[in-house]
Known about the structure:
It contains nine helices and eight strands. The strands form two sheets. Strands 2-1-3-4-5 form a five-stranded parallel sheet, sandwiched between helices. The chain has 231 residues and is an alpha/beta fold. Residues 7-123 form the Response regulatory domain.
Amino acid sequence: MADQPVRTLIVAAEPVLAARLRGYVAGVPGFVVSGVASSGEQALSPALRGRLDLILLDFFLPDMSGLDVCRALRARGSALDIIAVSLVRDLAMVQAAMSYGVIQYVVKPFTAIAFRRCLERYSAFRRQIAAGAGGLVRQRDVDLALSRLRLDGSGVTLPKGLSAPTLDTVVGHLRGAVGPLSADEVAGGLGLARVTARRYLEWLAAQRLAIRTMSYGHTGRPRHLYLWRRT
Length: 231
């Protein structure tokens, strides 16, 4: 297992993110991109053929959530390793992801160096497992293998009052828009209070996941607009 390249499926709705992940995978020795899918349904077919080792799974997909993809894979007997890519490190979401066999949870935004380190740690984990294959292992062998997966650095935690499910909804609405949106437009489209929509939009802007601009209407009063950052 350790001598074979890690056959990797990239699942990401945004072409820019998919291209970034493809580049990161190609830059780490021992990994090969075996396919790219832009939706959950597109990912399930190749994932269930048994010719992959790893899925890099963006949790924000157009047809189903990343958790739904994980759930579908496990329900059909797939034991593929999954590395999740998500906006938040909300404890409930992380726990749910881990319950479906996600072995790494990478928080956006992330750097090329951080993601490379994630893949290298996963590779070290596979080598450690392969080294003990076919024989009895000691507790320290188990601890050492699991330690290979530990990530350095801190994740992104949502402020009090913000929730991961609502953030997912706001992100999906913003990503699907053809142009910048105001807090009023997001609130109206999602049935949220304006102040609630603005809190999520401001958080996305502070995380550099959305671009905030200012527009002046006929009254001369400034209005903030938010555009999903695609680069």
